[in-house]
Amino acid sequence: MPSARAALGVIFAVARAHLTTMRRYPGYLAVDAVLPVIVTLAPLLIGQALAGPGALRNFTANTGALDPRAYMLLGASQLIIVSGALWNLGAWMRRELQTGTLEALYLCPAPRWWILAGVCLYGLCRDLLVFLLAIAIGGLVLGIDLLDARLAFAILLVASGSLSLYGLSLAYAALVLRLKDVTALTQLAQYAVGLLLGAFFPIHVLPTALQWLARAFPPMWITQGMRAIMLDVGWQLGAWYRDLAVVAAFSLATPVLGFLAFRRAESEMRRRGGVGGY
Amino acid sequence: MTDAIIDVQRLGKRYAVGRRRPWRRASPSAVIALDDVSFTVRRGECFGLLGPNGAGKTTLIKCLTTLLIPDSGTARLDGFDVVRQPAEVCARVGCMLMGERGVYWKLTGRENLEYFAALYFFPHAQRRRIVDQLVARLGLHDFVDRAVETYSSGQRMRIAFARALIHDAPILLLDEPTNTLDVHGARELRALVRELHAAGRTIVYSTHLLTEAEELCDRVAIVDRGRIAAIGSPRELVDRAGYHGSLRVIGRLPPAALAAIQHHPAARAAQLTPDRDCDILTIALRHGGADVGPLLTAIGTAGGEIRDLRLDHPSLEEVFVELTRARPTAPREP
After folding, report:
1. Which of B294, B258, B298 lies closest to B274, judged by CA?
2. ipTM > 0.90, yes or no
3. Which of B141, B143, B324 is nearest to B221 (CA)?
4. pLDDT at residue A23 above 70?
5. Among the four A231, B202, B263, B292, which has the fewest Cβ within 10 Å?
6. Are residues B102 and A110, on separate chains, in Cβ contact within 8 Å?
7. pLDDT number for residue A141
8. pLDDT tens for residues A95-109?
9. Domain ranges for chain A
């Protein structure tokens, strides 16, 4: 088994290759950074259109937040990050299948997990950059200032919670290995993610069944935790350590589930001869 | 065989056709891609894999490179089992399987090579040196620092070939490496393969170009319908099949000339194609070039007037066509 140093060499090389591509095509990053601001405007404008006397008071009573702009911007930026992270490994896998590079990677002795870890590291760097840019650009456009010390804690939460996201992402990559083309499923799931995340509303306004689904969805805890840190909206379970314990539990469980699903799908693929198939 | 670097014993692989439905008891039907395949490749040998499309070559190569798990049998490369020790096998095999695919188009050729060097555990400082050596060796200077998406097909092929050489593996597995190369590019690549072979590298060379196999390979295996139909050096295969070339005689050739040749002991068979200006007599030789003199004498004696002639030496192509001719059902390759 190669050393830990070799593992880091592989992980950083994979992340670096992706970052090089990103640097070469900055337009994609710019779109991802501006998207949360555009996505934020829609619910804000709908809110203005529907608002009557006491609308802001109702909003605060329902969400615990004083400023709808900050609430929506944080939700929208989290939606973009979660979408990116959830489909990251699957989209990467699909791209590699189509370009033929997946077969080339499977011909190398570097364990797949290290390569996947490199892809996740790149995804994390990119997501945090998108988050910071979205907060900065959104702040300028919407006239709010979220760039304070609490942002560092929010980033810490996003970074640590991303382990649970990448666990789910690995399970999704397993699905790509099995089904090859999951575009339609992804599009459907993206809407569900926005709903379960509570990107633009607190989850207690969802129907009861969906509330339970949302509670089983790790990114919801990260989004609401981020709002609790940045906007003092209160924690889901009443105290920060309880919410963080849930995030930690998901961060342990979903990577294991993702690992098992991926390993099974990969083994089946190697039996069916689909490494090069697309 | 003690010096065998590749040892394949009774390898078998089936592919299920159609999807298995949980409510159906019967398994989906299967296509046999590899059927009890056994062979060995000696260290330092250039071994050709020949076969028509769908014969099982790609399946065999995928099994040898750990991309595919065989259903039965064993395959060991440099002593390592392809199923139980895939990482060790990968470290000992340099592969070029998917031609110009398999490189990142948004990266430069150099970035691609450094990336793959990292996946073979080379430390950062060493990667640059290795890639520089490859660039010099394969003459990639002109384009290696441009993005791959700007390359011609041949340039991408050369980067893919360079990738196969990154870790200086003792075994090279090349699947139709000259496929998209122009004449000059193909010649250069073949020269490089010869050079690597001369340096002691074991090479498995899959191709449908029989002239390439004859030129490069010490031994070849003809794969057909998932089985090894024949194995040996190109010369051995031709000799074993009893082919000794053919003679084409062009001129005024009366039927008596054909009759004389048909009964001549030096001819296995003969066919006359009459024409208004010139007749063509094609003669399958029984013993090779030595038969030409007596046959020409016989034609002359029978009143034939010879204007031109051509001696075709026996080739692997004849053996290949003979062995892979009747193909009622072809197994599907993935």
Report:
1. B258
2. no
3. B324
4. yes
5. B263
6. no
7. 92
8. 888 888 998 999 999
9. 4-272
State the pLDDT at residue A28: 86
In chain B, which residues fall in CATH 3.40.50.300? 41-67+78-240
* Phi, psi dihedrals of residue B122, rounded to the nearest 5°: -75, 135
DSSP labels for B25-91?
-SPPPEEEEEEEEEEEEETT-EEEEE--TTSSHHHHHHHHTTSS--SEEEEEETTEETTT-HHHHHH
- The residue among B66, B96, B121, B175 with the most chain A CBs within 10 A of its CB, best to mutate, is B121
Q: Report yes or no: B111 at the A interface, CB cutoff 8 Å.
A: yes
Chain A CB contacts of B157 under 8 Å are none
Q: Please report the residues numbered 78 through 117 in chain A whose beta carbons come closer than 8 angstroms to any beta carbon of chain B.
A: 99-101, 103-111, 115
Nearest to B215 by CA among B228, B234, B200: B234
Residue A131 predicted with pLDDT over 80? yes
Cβ-based burial of A209 (10 A; exposed 0-12, middle 13-18, buried ≥19): exposed
B102–A104: do the CB atoms touch at under 8 Å?
yes
> For residue B62, which residues of chain A lie inside 8 Å, CB to CB?
273, 275-276
pLDDT tens digits for range B77-92? 999 999 999 999 999 9
Q: Can you tell me the distance from the alpha carbon of B51 to that of B224, in angstroms, rounded to the nearest whole number?
A: 6
How close B150 gets to chain A, by Cα (Å)?
14
Treating both helix axes as pointing N-terminal to C-terminal, what angle do A68-99 and A112-142 enclose, rounded to 10 degrees? Answer: 150
Q: In the predicted model, what is the mean pLDDT of residues B109-116?
A: 96
- The third-level CATH classification (topology) of the domain covering B244-313 is Alpha-Beta Plaits (3.30.70)
SS3 at position B267: strand
Confidence of residue B21 (pLDDT cuts 50, 70, 90): low
- pTM for this prediction: 0.83
- Name the percent of chain A lying above pLDDT 90: 43
Task: Please choose, from the candidates A209, A214, A208, the residue with its C-alpha nearest in 3D space to the C-alpha of residue A195.
Answer: A214
Alpha helices in chain A (DSSP H): 4-24, 26-50, 55-63, 68-99, 101-106, 112-142, 149-179, 183-197, 208-215, 218-231, 240-272
CATH number for region B41-67+78-240: 3.40.50.300
Identify the pLDDT of residue B333.
44
Q: For position B24, what pLDDT does the model report? A: 61
Is the CB of B93 inside 8 Å of chain A's CB atoms?
yes
Q: How confident is the model at residue B18 (pLDDT cuts 50, 70, 90)?
A: low
> Any CB–CB contact under 8 A between B120 and chain A?
yes
Q: Which residues of chain B make contact with A100, given a CB cutoff of 8 A?
A: 98, 101-102
